[in-house]
Write a structure and sequence with these properties.
325 residues, 2 domains, 11 helices, 32% helix, 26% strand
């Protein structure tokens, strides 16, 4: 099969190679998936570059997310899964067979049936973004009736956080940096969209949230946005962050104590397996309900996988970057 792979860490154009390698066979408890579309996330370029290095056992095919069809199953897997269209999550976690290839082999739990009518683009965009959004929203319990602030609502995690929060019965505010991103956040269903760069952002959020304040913040830039978050958060409210900035922030301990704020940090690799499986099931149900939608998509062929990584790393693309094997 044709696959993108790397055997050392470094810049995309220096270490990513397209090679013909032997097609893998599924082991016990695994399935093989003929990949239709592969999704690229920031964690993919960070692992490949060495910014957040992970061990390489000979070679690594990148990308956790994708859509495809199961065409082989290992021992202990129901043969009835053959021919099933699925979306994949954390395919490359502790596994060399990521989705940037014609085939991928994953534990059967990581291949989730894709609801009928859902596009391959949507399926390949779930994985890391939707499961991160889910964990950020529900790790501390139900959010029905709460006011949720989603920072960066035009990004992939922000997009699914808005849609999942609305489906769960929350009122949703989103912050963005400009008009185009405001349109995307509004289209996802945010009740209020605020440009955080404009004066009066905190006042707009507080006026919408009412005297109680914001209950729950999903944060993409914890250090940069913490003053705004503390200004609008209710006493005892939660800030959940899923991204690391280049420099660690200085935490205003007294202000956080005064707010009795609860801080949570989310990284999917360490989330308990049972919680990941619940997230996958609920995300599929949301897709079946029509509650989750596609972001704008930029496609690259497999031969241009390095350009796809550079596009995500450079942050120049609004929406989702996909690779077609």
């Amino acid at each position: 099969m044709r696959a993108a792979l790397y055997d050392r860490h470094g810049p995309a154009r220096e270490v990513l190679k397209i090679e013909d390698i032997e097609r893998p066979e599924p082991g016990a408890g695994e399935v093989r998936v003929k990949v239709e579309v592969s999704g690229v996330n920031p964690t993919d370029w960070k692992s490949r570059s060495g910014a957040t290095p992970r061990p390489i056992d000979g070679f690594q095919i990148p990308h956790h997310d994708g859509t495809g069809v199961i065409d082989a199953v290992g021992d202990g897997v129901d043969p009835g899964r053959m021919g099933q269209r699925v979306w994949l999550w954390l395919a490359a976690a502790g596994n060399p067979w990521g989705t940037a290839a014609e085939w991928s082999v994953v534990p059967e739990r990581a291949a989730v049936p894709l609801p009928a009518g859902a596009s391959g683009e949507l399926g390949a965009s779930l994985g890391v973004p939707a499961m991160t959004a889910y964990r950020c929203l529900f790790a501390d319990g139900p959010i029905d009736g709460q006011t949720v602030l989603v920072a960066g609502g035009a990004g992939a995690v922000g997009h699914y956080a808005i849609e999942l929060a609305r489906r769960a019965g929350a009122r949703v505010i989103s912050t963005v940096s400009g008009p185009r991103k405001a349109g995307l956040a509004a289209k996802a269903g945010a009740d209020l969209v605020v440009n955080y760069r404009e004066p009066g952002a905190a006042e707009q959020i507080s006026a919408f949230a009412g005297p109680r304040g914001v209950d729950h913040v999903i944060e993409v830039a914890f250090g940069a946005n913490l003053p705004l978050d503390l200004a609008v958060l209710r006493p005892g409210g939660r800030i959940v962050t899923y991204a690391a900035e280049p420099a660690d922030p200085v935490l205003p301990v007294r202000a956080c104590m005064t707010a009795n704020v609860v801080l949570r940090f989310v990284l999917l690799y360490g989330v308990p397996l049972e919680a990941m499986e619940q997230a996958a099931a609920d995300i599929s149900a949301a897709v079946a309900d029509g509650a989750l939608t596609e972001l704008p998509v930029t496609r690259f062929p497999l031969d241009e996988v390095a350009a796809a990584h550079d596009a995500v790393e450079g942050g120049a693309v609004v929406g989702k970057v996909l690779v077609v094997p």
